[in-house]
Amino acid sequence: MNTARNNDWNSAYERDYLAWYEREQDTVGEPFDPQPFVDAAHAQYPDHPELAEAFARCTGAWHRSRLYTYLRMPADRKARWHFIGSFWLQHPKLGKLLVDLLQDPDDGAQVCIGGFEYFDRLGEADELEAWESEALKVLAELEEEERINAELRAALQAMEEQHAAEVGQPFEPGELFQLATEQWPDMPLVAATFALCTQEWPLSDLYTYFMSYTERRALLYFCGATLKHPDLGYLLVDLVFDERVEGGVRVVGMEFMGHETGEEDTDGIWEPYWPAGDAVPTSAAPPRGHLRIVHVGNVARDRCVHCWPGE
Questions:
Q1: CA-CA distance, 221 to 294, in Å (whole number)?
Q2: Dihedral angle of Cα 119, 27, 30, 67, to the nearest 10 degrees
Q3: Residue 108 — φ and ψ, nearest 5°?
Q4: Alpha carbon 309 to its chain's center
Q5: Are the beta carbons of 179 and 229 closer than 8 angstroms?
Q6: So what's the pLDDT on residue 5?
Q7: CA–CA separation, 24 vs 11, rounded Å?
Q8: I need a surface site. Which of 36, 63, 261, 275 has the fewest CB within 10 A?
């Protein structure tokens, strides 16, 4: 029951975190046609062609409210907003705009457009009242967003601490060591690392780790290899780079394929493969990051079976 409640909490947290992450990492925005702005800047500031050129590089828009539109993605606004000043621009349809000018975070030698305020919408008294009301609403939204972000950060930190504090259970690796030695004759050094698997950290009924959370997070994924167990069926064993062992590669965990498929046997040994065009990682060319998706296939079908780390 405890495990089920923890899994439900983790799933809800992960959904909220994913929604927040996708919102914060939006690099595309809504489609933005810069041409009317380019034409207006050319006509109104002929001595400053850099303004028109800056508008020409704008391809996406992120609308903060009916009074302001950003032309820089959220990540830039938080860490790379180097404000220079503002200038007026008369748009043929949007009216008078107050445009924010920034130092281009990608090229400090030129300027870029941060966004613009719809100044004509502030002209009338009722519009000003609406603006003030909306400004208060925006401030409340920002405060709420910051509160949610703080809660998410705290929850993530708590999850990290919870995983780091998990104590491994005793594990006897002798049988797996023997099977690996027999079935991996071309990888004797890797098979030998099963002797180091004296503790396990079960993730679920389908997967168990042989390293603590903190230790395995520091290592890069290498590849997967299969073992045939007389009782458990096929096991997909994950291997990582580890300079501390002879050969540089060791066992980190394994997936119980027989548990997932419900099959006591398969039509053939399942071999991991990488998508066409992706080089298989080697000690000379390790993977680019920690996340990997292992695709496992046989003659009859292909399946995506495990993402690591999936915590």
A1: 10
A2: -20
A3: -65, -10
A4: 12
A5: yes
A6: 53
A7: 20
A8: 275
Contact at 8 Å (CB) between 102 and 84?
yes
Opening angle at CA 190, ends 292 and 168, nearest 5: 70
pLDDT tens across 41-91, in order? 999 999 999 999 999 999 999 888 888 899 988 777 766 778 888 899 999
Query: Using an 8 Å Cβ cutoff, are 70 and 28 in contact?
Result: no
Q: Which residues of 68-103 are buried (b: 16+ CB within 10 A; e: fewer)?
A: bbbbbbeebeeebeeeeeebebebeebebbebbbbb
Map tokens 């062992």 to a residue.
245
DSSP state of 130: H
Coil/strand/helix, residue 236: strand
User: What are the pLDDT digits (tens) for 227-262?
Assistant: 999 988 999 999 999 999 998 999 999 999 875 444
Percent of the chain with pLDDT over 90: 36
- The radius of gyration of the chain's CA atoms, rounded to the nearest angstrom, is 28
Q: SS3 letters for 120-186?
A: HHHCCHHHHHHHHHHHHHHHHHHHHHHHHHHHHHHHHHHHHHHHHHCCCEECCCHHHHHHHHHHCCC
φ/ψ region of 233 (left if φ > 0, alpha if ψ in -120 to 50, else beta) reads left
Q: Which two tokens stand for residue 157?
A: 């930190």
User: d(Cα 177, Cα 172) in Å, to the nearest integer?
Assistant: 10
- Mean local confidence (pLDDT), 14-43: 83
Pair 114, 126: CB distance under 8 Å: no
